[in-house]
Amino acid sequence: MDGAEIYLISAAGGVIAALAPLIYLIYYARPVTFTVWTGALVSFIAGFIFTLLAQQWPFFYARFTYLLALALLITSLIYTYWGMYRRRWTMYLFAAAAWIYIIILAVVARVLGLGDPFII
Amino acid sequence: MNWVALFVGVAAGMAVAFGRVYAESVISRQLGLPPQLLFKHRDVLVPFLVLAGAANIYAVWIVVAYGGIAAWRLSAVLGLALLVAAQIIQLSVALRPSKKDLELALISCVPYVYLFALYVAALLMNKYSLWLF
Fold first, then answer.
1. What total of structural domains would you count in chain B?
2. Domain of life, per the record (chain A) (predicted)?
């Protein structure tokens, strides 16, 4: 698998993660507000990063930080879907926890000069 | 197993299904009626559009990847044309909901029947290629 394929699969994963709640909400004729469209954007990003990380499974499956990142991304997706369902944007703040965790990992790896962000 | 074709196909099929539910909501808002009154078979059609979109893109990969198009066999070109026609019919089902939705969806299943018939015929004739003519 080369880079283009990995990013294509990640983009498809993001589109799937974003469209699934939108199809559900419009199918059951629930109101679609600005908060819901924002949630679709947030879940696209979460789905993209989750699929991108999940494709690195054979390299990192024994790392605690990697498994924690995957679990946090799934939790973040669930919080985003909840926020889209209830139309409360404060749920997206909980969802951002996974992003902050991954960013901190990347920054720490950069400072320590490591090859990948999953340090443990 | 091609994960790129599978994921891109599911994403494209979900985009088509999203177009379907969005068109339903627009029409039901114009007419002032709930969508489940206007469109009887939406519970069948929305999942069908997701699955059929995925099947179309995966089948195009099957036709192109196993040398059908490289040799320009008539059966492979016919399969590709049927798949394109099916995708167009499914797009019209998604974006212009009508009373003929189920019939059109059934007609758009012709390429899957055709490919399956080719597969069975190739098995029966002990041929290694799906493209018999």
1. 1
2. Archaea
